Amino acid sequence: MVDTAKARTTRAFAPASIGNVSLGFDILGAALEPIDATLLGDWVEVKDADTFSLSVDGRFADRLPPGTKNNIVTRCFEFFQQALISHNKPSLSVKMHLHKALPIGSGLGSSASSIVAAFYALNDHAGRPFDEDTLLVMMGELEGQISGSVHYDNVAPSYLGGMTLMTGQQRTVCSQLPVFDDWYWVACYSGLSVSTAAARDILPRQYELSTTLTFGRQIGVFVHALHSGDKALAASVMQDVIAEKHRKTLLPKFDEARAYSMSQNALGFGISGSGPTVFAVTNKLDDAKRIQTWLNEHYIQNEDGFSHICRIDTAGTRILA
Ligand SMILES: Nc1ncnc2c1ncn2[C@@H]1O[C@H](COP(=O)(O)OP(=O)(O)OP(=O)(O)O)[C@@H](O)[C@H]1O
Ligand SMILES: N[C@@H](CCO)C(=O)O
């Protein structure tokens, strides 16, 4: 029996993220940190208890599928327990709580944020039996179960922070890239919900050779530009040749939002993950504020929508007091 007076609690926060970042479909992601210090992401608490339970709260908790079993956090717990058992480690006797701050199907890495916070909190509570790569592979597996395909471009930046490039390897699953700390990222969620699986289904199965050559060139040039500090060169290749023209049909006012942002000196503009959140990159706060105001007035479709001016979050998932 757990002595409730001595029950330990571990709480982890995992930030929102932009998957793809326009030029790196499925292989490039970035974590977001609002400049007004809003905690934009989910947090998960793990507490010693005799029997497992999951409670939820937060602005978007009522949009979660009903029932503990249907929440991805419960599946993370079951997966983690199984991993402990198969590595001959002591199993956990805990209950969990999810604070759901990110809207579901938003393009802000909502399921990834829950998954990453859950695994991080469980691992920390268990005395950190699993290393970074092992945890990341677990996170990718669970993200794949829920969105229909394994992609790390939300879980990796949310976990590790910064901008992450997936390597395709099981060890050193991703590399962290340098970021320009004077760039602002205006992220605007329209309030609609777009399922990642559906937004993947509308993409072509095959692409023209010229498109694949452009995709390869862009990612190579972008990584070089980040490492050499060439901001203009980096911005010049932030164009989506894979998903945008297909997915923007799901996003009312997308073309107008892009046109306005580019007219206000945006360095880049694109769909965050599978949408409907869009992002604009600027190097001046005034430009970011004008773009944010326009997006608030024209891109947001209902009362669920919101926007934030962000920097890249370099801390990633962290323990909350
Ligand atoms: N804790 C959770 N957080 C988010 N989605 C969850 C959670 N638990 C279960 N789900 C379900 O997982 C599915 C997630 O779908 P999807 O991958 O499209 O959304 P998402 O991860 O919120 O999207 P995005 O990455 O674009 O923010 C939804 O059907 C949702 O109901
Ligand atoms: N890379 C994924 C991210 C989903 O958030 C996609 O675009 O489908």
TrEMBL record:
EC number: 2.7.1.39
Domain of life of the organism encoding this protein: Bacteria
Main subcellular location: cytoplasm
Localisation: Cytoplasm
Pathways per UniProt: Amino-acid biosynthesis; L-threonine biosynthesis; L-threonine from L-aspartate: step 4/5
Catalytic activity: L-homoserine + ATP = O-phospho-L-homoserine + ADP + H(+)
InterPro entries: GHMP_kinase_C_dom (IPR013750), GHMP_kinase_C_sf (IPR036554), GHMP_kinase_N_dom (IPR006204), GHMP_knse_ATP-bd_CS (IPR006203), Homoserine_kinase (IPR000870), Ribosomal_Su5_D2-typ_SF (IPR020568), Ribsml_uS5_D2-typ_fold_subgr (IPR014721)
GHMP kinase N-terminal domain mapped to chain residues: 71-162
Amino-acid positions noted as binding ATP in the UniProt annotation, renumbered to this chain: P103, I104, G105, S106, G107, L108, G109, S110, S111, A112, S113
Any coiled-coil regions, as ranges: none
Record key words, sorted: Amino-acid biosynthesis, ATP-binding, Cytoplasm, Kinase, Nucleotide-binding, Threonine biosynthesis, Transferase
UniProt-listed Gene3D superfamilies: 3.30.230.10, GHMP kinase, C-terminal domain
GO molecular function list: homoserine kinase activity
GHMP kinase C-terminal domain residues: 224-300
Enzyme kind, highest EC tier: transferase
Keyword Cytoplasm among record annotations: yes
Function field: Catalyzes the ATP-dependent phosphorylation of L-homoserine to L-homoserine phosphate.
Family membership: Belongs to the GHMP kinase family. Homoserine kinase subfamily.
UniProt xrefs under HAMAP family: Homoser_kinase
PANTHER family: HOMOSERINE KINASE, HOMOSERINE/4-DIPHOSPHOCYTIDYL-2-C-METHYL-D-ERYTHRITOL KINASE
Protein name listed in UniProt: Homoserine kinase
Origin species: Glaciecola siphonariae
